[in-house]
Specification:
- This protein is α/β, with parallel strands linked by helices.
- It has 2 domains: 18-226, P-loop containing nucleotide triphosphate hydrolases (Rossmann fold, 3-Layer(aba) Sandwich); 237-398, 3-Layer(aba) Sandwich (Rossmann fold).
- The chain is 35% helix and 13% strand.
- The strands form 2 sheets. Strands 3-4-2-5-6-1-7 form a 7-stranded parallel sheet, sandwiched between helices. A 7-stranded parallel sheet has the order 10-11-9-12-13-8-14, sandwiched between helices.
- Strand 12, helix 14 (343-350) and strand 13 form a beta-alpha-beta unit.
- The radius of gyration is 33 Å and the shape is globular.
- Residues 411-428 have a biased composition (Low complexity).
Length: 480
Amino acid sequence: MPDTQLALTHPAAPAVRFEDFGLSPDILRALADQGYIHPTPIQAEAIPIVLQGCDVMGAAQTGTGKTAGFSLPIIQLLLAHASTSASPARHPVRALILTPTRELADQVADNVKAYSRHTPLRSTVVFGGVDMAPQTAALRSGVEIVIATPGRLLDHVQQKTLNLSQTQILVMDEADRMLDMGFLPDLQRIINMLPAQRQNLMFSATFSPEIKKLANSFLKNPVTIEVARSNATADNVTQVLYKVEEDAKHDAVAYIIRERGLKQVIVFSNTKIGASRLSRHLEKEGVKAAAIHGDKTQGERMAALEAFKQGTIEVLVATDVAARGLDIAELPCVINFDLPYNAEDYVHRVGRTGRAGASGDAISLFSDKDARLLTDIEKLIKHTISRLQLTGFVPQRSSDRRPRYEESSDRAASSRSSGNSSQYGRSAYAPRKEKIDPWFLKPYEPTVPAPQQDQNGASGQGGKPAKAKVAALLGGMPKR
């Protein structure tokens, strides 16, 4: 990547409107259908630059409208090649948008379809975890814009259902997450398949040194657009920390949800098994919850997400991979059950709330073992998160979570007090007595072998048992 052009950091003027960018009336009509009039800062900065055909590195906080920042100018640029013909040959893939997760790909595809609904342009989405047949049919019918996850895209290329030879625009959305998920070899393969002359756009909330190294390999004289300090959290999100003992975190999450009357909240867990356990615990506490993570099928994940959006489910417990790119309108709160191992993930988690200028709350639980993770997060965001006391929270008494041997001790005491000396009359710490079969206590008695008879019924000579014949199965045949 040669010398980077001017970095744009100034916010958009409030008077700027989408119609000021020279967008097609069909696009403006679609935006009006969505109720959009004024662009967000990242959109106001990115749209004119992308329309000029420049490569772009766009850094903005999650939830600021990056998707429209690149999809609107792409649709505008491709309108020059739009065709109403039914022939697939008239609808080659001209724009490729790569995302790290299925959920994000699906949401970007929804946005692209909404913005291009009044144009002849076609778009489709391909991702793993679902049947390839419908995706193959859509690709073979011809589409100008493909939104895809890297792995499934390569599957279609290998099966020759997708041709990238006419692709003019490449977009990497959430590129940092794609590197975290180990997609770098796939990204390099995809880049090598594309025409050398193309426009490249890279958008993300965070830009690590690894991301900049990747950008070096394929961006040409990019314009860096940074509407907010890199790796920063939104000012309209209130961040607080509650110190809670590790074994009381499950109860603390349930208490926070009940106390605040939260009806729509995402809770983040670092592990898949942790997400499932927390979801089950909340269900037992009377909170409608569901977990989404990598072990869930795509159908299960999409069903849970849809139920969450509809309000059927109040709490969505998610891992970072499953939650990246989730766009929930007016999400009031996120809770970090676990502090993330990567400090950058904290920025993305917090970015799930406070979207499009709305206010939001980001609540994190931490214990003594999380000290290093917390230090890394505060160092990254250059902000000290407020430590508060979880007023009114009384953890479940340890006696209510005692192991079974302690419960046995209680029952034993109860039995003794009632004069019952049954199986609970022994000490709680005494080893359990195994039942012993009396047969094993008998003295050893050697068994006298009975005399064996030959085929004629005669016993062996001299009272000795007859010589046993070796089975033919074992290779021994009687001598004749």
